[in-house]
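Run Fucose isomerase through structure prediction, thanks.
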Amino acid sequence: MLKGIPAILSPELLKVLCEMGHSDRLVISDGNFPAESMGKNAIVIRCDGHGVPELLDAILKVFPLDTYTDKPVNLMEVMPGDTVETPIWDTYKKIVTKYDNRGEKAVGGIERFKFYEEAKTAYAIIATSEKALYANIMLQKGVVVEE
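Sure, done. The structure for Fucose isomerase is below.
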């Protein structure tokens, strides 16, 4: 155990977050996301039993978002014609607002199949047990600035 580090962040996950460099991307996926097939060239970390919001909150405590891009946080957009509700997106925006001065403006969307293509180039994919649909989120890492 470490002081100030959320207990949900495993040693394996902390190592990966630390290894990531500026502009590297991290996907936190819902339970339906094909993490293993998308992550053939990425590090896949299993976080079974956890949801995306609790992991997102813990990760953003230690993970700076990229300030050189307008949308360092991206959600998988709902397919046209799909009637799925996405209230979890509001939860994500509130969490991002806690850690980034841009608030909701830092959050964008990527069409579903483009999201899959982007995910294939991510540094790491965290596979969760999140049951909400369209609950996948991609973060782009920034730099740590001394305060």
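Residues 11-78+85-140 form a domain with the RbsD-like fold fold (CATH 3.40.1650.10).
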